[in-house]
Amino acid sequence: MIQNIGFIGLGIIGGAIAKSIKKTHDDYKIYAYNRYYPQENKDLSMAHDESVVDIICNSLSDFSVCDIIFLCAPVLANINYLESLKGIIKEDCIITDVGSVKGNIHEAVKNIGLEQNFIGGHPMTGSERTGYANSSAQIMENAYYLLTPCETTHEHMISNLTTLIRDIGSI
Q: What is the DSSP string of 117-147?
């Protein structure tokens, strides 16, 4: 059962997904981390003020309660977060990303030993703009959202993520 969803990076895509989730599942708790926090971070503050983010995280260890973690930072940064998350996540936590490139992250997932937890993802949407302030739940509606699970990803995890993606209006 999904209750807690984490976001590492809350720019335009992470923000759009988080807003979409809150719109359809306002009972889910959204955790968010940007590498610049706890320094001034207007994106996290704005998301918290809008009641999109419930908990602003100071550390990746705050993600230990998450059922799903969305990696929404740049592709190479997402790869770097994997090693830190391995010792923190619950056994049945889904880790997914939103990057357009899959080869490097799937290789890293395999090398780190997170294949059973990882489902690559890429929402086919976006904008020329950046940042949370430019995100909108509407860009997720009717957007194709590609998933690239690993060979050993548990079927129920794929089903749970697919259901969430459909719930937010993506195809």
A: TEEEEEES---S--SGGG--GGGGTT--EEE
- Dist CA 144 CA 169 (whole Å): 9
d(CA 93, CA 63): 10
CA distance 136 to 1: 26
* Residue whose token pair is 């993506």: 170
State the Cα–Cα distance between residues 116 and 110, nearest whole angstrom. 9
Dihedral (CA of 22, 84, 156, 142) sign: positive
Report the alpha-carbon distance of residue 71 to residue 55 in Å, rounded.
16
Q: 23-80, pLDDT tens digit by residue?
A: 999 999 999 998 765 444 788 999 999 999 999 998 999 999 999 999 999 999 999 9
Whole-structure pTM value? 0.95
